[in-house]
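Structure first, sequence second, as always.
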């Protein structure tokens, strides 16, 4: 649990990544990780030092043809060094720079992906509503718990 027993909420962002002649698609990255109940990060990913057991996570697919929330999960542990087996999940897609990992529990894929655009006006973590994509450019975004609940509610409609 976080300080004072309060959990926090984050968005894990998966984006299309070109590696030479290969493209790792956001959806493939998310599926590979979530199916294994883990998420991987580079050493430079923001917020990972603050994450703690019980924190809530939304998974967002960025980029052309995506811009949707597809799943939710709960952190089952603190962020740690990724095992060689975990690193292999993304190495198979040509992604070799992920060295940190967190185990996830209660992974739930939304029945229907939730488009972000209709939610933007009500999301507090997005200051400039016109340029909402700027707030999802990094691998992890910290969000208010109310924003997490708003996305989950939209997924359950």
């Amino acid at each position: 649990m976080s300080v004072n027993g309060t959990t926090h909420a984050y968005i894990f962002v998966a984006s299309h990544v070109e590696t030479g002649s290969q493209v790792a698609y956001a959806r493939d990255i998310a599926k590979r990780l979530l199916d294994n109940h883990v998420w991987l990060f580079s050493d430079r990913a923001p917020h990972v030092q603050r994450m703690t057991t019980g924190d809530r996570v939304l998974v967002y697919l960025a980029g052309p043809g995506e811009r949707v929330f597809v799943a939710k999960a709960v952190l089952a542990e603190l962020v740690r060094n990724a095992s060689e087996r975990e690193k292999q999940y993304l190495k198979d897609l040509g992604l070799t720079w992920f060295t940190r990992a967190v185990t996830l529990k209660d992974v739930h894929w939304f029945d229907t992906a939730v488009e972000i655009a209709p939610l933007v006006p009500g999301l507090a973590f997005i200051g400039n509503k016109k340029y909402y994509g700027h707030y999802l450019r990094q691998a992890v975004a910290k969000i208010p718990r109310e924003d997490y609940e708003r996305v989950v509610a939209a997924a359950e409609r």
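Margin note: The mean pLDDT is 93.
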